[in-house]
Amino acid sequence: MNFNRRNFLTFLGVSLGGTLLGSTGKKDWMLFSDEAIAGTSPNYASKTIEGLSFKPVKLPIPLTTERMTSQQEKLAYSSYEVKDDLILPEGYTYDVIGAWGDRLGNSRFGYNNDYLSYVETSPNEGFLTINFEYISGKTWMQTYPIVIGKSLPFEEVKAVAAKSQGKINAFALSNNNPLKAKIREISAEGLIDQGIGVMSLRHNPDGSWERTFSSSDRRITGISGLKDGNYLKTTGPAVAIFTKTNKEGYEDGLGDKIIGTFQNCAGGTTPWGTVLSAEENFQDQVPETVMADGSSLDPSQKPFIINDKEVDGRANVFGLAGNKYGWMVEVDPTNPNDYGTKHTWLGRFRHEAFGLKVIAGKQLAVYSGCDRRGGHLYKFVSTQEVSNPQSKDNSRLFEDGMLYGAKFNPDGTGRWIALNPNTPVDPVLPSQVVGKEDVGMVPLPNPDRSAGSIVQITSDAEVIEYKKQFPTLGDLYKGDRTEQQGAILIDAHFAANAAGITCTARPEDTVVAPDGNLYITFTSGYPGSDGGPDKSIFKGPNGESPYEFGWIVSLREDNEEPAAMTFRWNILALGGEPCEGGFGFCNPDNLAIDSNDNIWLLTDISTSKNNKEITSRTENGKSVSQTQISGIFGNNSAWVIPTSGANAGTAYPFAIGPMETEMTGPCFSSDRKTLFLSIQHPGEKNGMREDMAMEMRKFDMRTTTNKEFMQERQVPLGSNWPNKQVNQPPRPAVVAIRRTDSRIITA
């Protein structure tokens, strides 16, 4: 048993023998059958494990759960073939229920589907709400004419943009300029492929799903409201900024109305049946930083960008105001007239997921992370209390409360710091965070408040002077108290840095378990252009920092109170190779908890690292970085971690994604017989796979006992999923996974 599993068991209250302390009466899990450790054939990896409802799939790396000797691992893993398909355990299958370009409402199924929420409205019928996060520029341009059936002027606009480093301030072009019209056409199509979709479904007796094409089916796109009047609504203090006159920055003339939603990544579902959608990397389309009064920078600060790999800055040509994106959007899938409400009390940052704590008689708590290097963990607490958790009246609770950021202490304690005008300025120190070339960096609101935006601080001495200049957050932001509060929420990430809230390691998912415990995935501990994580908190199994492979962290509020201002936290599991104390996964992202309290985990290894060859782990006599060896983990994968019985705290691989994809949005049907998954960006790096092309690559591998061996791996180049036929375009899609025997997924 490695340290990680021991940590997990201690937290869960499980004895080393595998019995849950204070047992709930559930069937205990058996550890390993004799069959699982018998034989020497290279094909016996991932044999059936008693107590699991599935036989784990075989990954490219050896796992301790297979109970092999080093020699057996070398034999079994000396070669490996990567498949361009969704690989599931024996006895499981999947159906594609929607793919990019399919009709959806009065528009189409968007690109790079992410978070999924199934809300049942009657037995075997309901609505699947789908986030559409972003477009993968290269592959989207390559396959758009094939899938959508029309052409766009990509090459013409690229040729013009190439003269100015791929950038064009289309907003400044005259309306009768033909170039502006072409950019507008491309940008509109890209924004249509982002946002939110609502799809009605029926579950058939044979286990399959079919669309029912309800009148409530609809798309909420990146340009909803631009022509159709279906603007998004807003609540909370930022409304005072949207509607104020004499803004210091850009004025879009729309008041509190908002055109569209985009970069919709993860989300959450309320007990009363509404869906929360997270606007994440909005900075790809609009300016992120703002003026001191919370107003937007001019659209010229995020020009239209087009080259062979990307098509971004698509809001530029429409003059969209940057401060209106980066919010939580609430949608009622059953209301065909609901095009979303942005609740600004939850803050504007690169939102990832919403974990809700909803208890009758208590204040509502909503947890969300900012997915960036150096991003923060946040909690919104409502002013009023929950009455009936199933009542749709609870949506009003999002309209008044307070946003807090988490301050983690190395001893496993922590506290919540309010983001309001009275909060003292006590910035995160650059020396506290992991930095490039050992130089930490913290971005703070620009001390020249008339200029707005931010500055990057790299010395602790600069922070000391900063604190002297600005005693409280209210001194950083302009206006009356309501306007200051609105500006702080609009500038939440940089205000949080100024308040001293802990910089973390890309918090990607926040899930509240039935027992009230919050699980958080932190995907990667390496620094980047945005900053880095706190080096005293985010460490590897041997205390190393930076640590690339990620963490699962638990957080429990003191006294189990949603509105508690203090908490305790614990690292439950580490990503990484088993030989180094990791669980075998890399870069944990989405989480789900099934009805048996098993934790389901999906990984988020960046496309550029999927199956990237590594022939040696040393270079010029030094070990290469962890990011350079991430290719050993292969395609992204899905895992199950039992939380009770003898297998508690052990991770088992359940699925492997197609080529150059990320699996996202795990969601179970109410009868527990279906697992919905999003498969996004197939072929993101190499595009459409041509003539079943593939190549052999070599990998410097390690056994679970740290013995070196070389693996030859056959890797497809690009993707043809989900069609899987020669020279067919890859299409992001949503699948329904089920057992062929029609039993419960995790029975």
- The average pLDDT score comes to 93
Structural class category: alpha+beta
Largest sheet: 9 strands, antiparallel
Q: Please state the overall shape, judged from the principal axes of the Cα atoms.
A: globular
Question: Helicity, in percent?
Answer: 10-25%
* Percentage of residues in strands: 25-35%
- What ranges have pLDDT less than 50 throughout 5 or more consecutive residues? 16-45
Q: Separation of termini?
A: 26 Å
Number of helices: 10
Quaternary: single chain
Question: Quick one: how many beta strands?
Answer: 39
Strand order of the largest sheet: 18-19-20-21-22-28-27-26-25
Query: What Rg is obtained from the alpha carbons, in whole angstroms?
Result: 25 Å
Descriptive keywords:
single chain, 747 residues, alpha+beta, nine-stranded antiparallel β-sheet, five-stranded antiparallel β-sheet, 39 strands, globular
Topology:
Elements lengths: L2 H10 L21 H4 L32 H7 L2 E3 L10 E8 L3 E2 L2 E2 L4 E10 L2 E8 L4 H12 L5 H8 L5 E2 L9 H15 L2 E9 L5 E3 L6 E4 L11 E3 L2 H6 L20 E6 L5 E5 L24 E3 L4 E2 L15 E4 L9 E3 L7 E7 L5 E8 L6 E9 L15 E8 L4 E6 L23 E4 L8 E4 L2 H10 L11 H10 L1 H8 L7 E6 L5 E5 L28 E7 L8 E9 L13 E6 L5 E5 L14 E2 L2 E2 L13 E5 L10 E5 L5 E7 L6 E6 L13 E9 L5 E9 L16 E7 L8
Parallel strand pairs: 1-38, 11-17
Antiparallel strand pairs: 2-39, 3-4, 5-6, 6-8, 7-14, 8-9, 8-10, 12-13, 13-16, 14-15, 16-17, 18-19, 19-20, 20-21, 21-22, 22-28, 23-24, 25-26, 26-27, 27-28, 29-30, 30-33, 31-32, 33-34, 35-36, 36-39, 37-38
Notes on the protein architecture:
This protein has a domain of 224 residues. The chain contains ten helices and 39 strands.
